[in-house]
Amino acid sequence: MDEPVYARPNRITPGNPVLFDEAVCDGCNRCLTVCLEDVFIPNPEKGKPPLILHPDECWYCGPCVDDCPRPGAIRLNHPLQQRVRFKRKATGEHFRV
Ligand code: SF4
Ligand code: SF4
Predict the structure, then answer these.
(1) Does domain 18-95 have CATH number 3.40.50.150?
(2) 26 CB under 6 A from ligand 1?
(3) Distance between CA atoms of 93 and 96, rounded to whole angstroms?
(4) Rounded mean pLDDT of 15-41?
(5) How far is CA 73 from CA 3, 27, 29, 56, 88, in A?
(6) Residue 11 has pLDDT above 80, yes or no
(7) Exposed, middle or buried, 53 (CB in 10 Å: 0-12/13-18/19+)?
(8) Residue 62 Cβ < 6 Å to ligand 2
(9) Which of 39, 53, 75, 76 to mutate to test the pocket of ligand 2 (most atoms within 8 A of CB)?
(10) What secondary structure does DSSP assign to 8-22, as a single string?
C-alpha cells in the first residue's frame, strides 16, 4: 500500500488521561503496547512519547504507567471529579471511600 495514512487526535475531548515527561520518556512504546483501549499511537519522531489519539477511550486502569520502564515518564491525570476527597469535621482528616 503506497497511500499515506493519516491520524488526527480528538481535540474535542477536554480530558488528557496521561501526562508524559519528555525529558524521561525514551519513546519505547511499551505503554502503547499494553494499553487495551488503543489510546495511543506511536510518535513518528523516534525517541518521543506516543501521541494520544483517543483520550476519551481511557479507563484510567493504569498498565501504561505500571509497565513503563522509566519511572516518571508517564503518569495518570485523573479527571477532577475522580479526585474528590472527604474531610472529617472532627479531625480534619482527608480520606477517600
Ligand atoms: S512513557 Fe514509558 S513506556 Fe511509554 S514510551 Fe515513554 S518510556 Fe516507553
Ligand atoms: S490508563 Fe489504561 S486505558 Fe488509559 S491509557 Fe493507560 S492503559 Fe490505556
Answers:
(1) no
(2) yes
(3) 10
(4) 95
(5) 34, 10, 11, 21, 35
(6) no
(7) middle
(8) yes
(9) 39
(10) ---TT-----EEE-T
Cα separation, 67 vs 30, whole angstroms: 7
Say if CB 58 and CB 15 are below 8 A apart. Answer: yes
Ligand nearest to the Cα of 52, by number: 2
Q: Single out the residue of 91, 22, 89 nearest to residue 51, CA to CA.
A: 22
**Residue 49: which residues within 8 A CB-CB, separation 6 or more?**
20, 22, 25, 27, 43, 73, 74
Give residue 46's pLDDT band: very low, low, confident or very high (50, 70, 90).
very high
For the stretch 47-78, pLDDT in tens is: 999 999 989 899 999 999 999 999 999 999 99
Confidence (pTM): 0.84
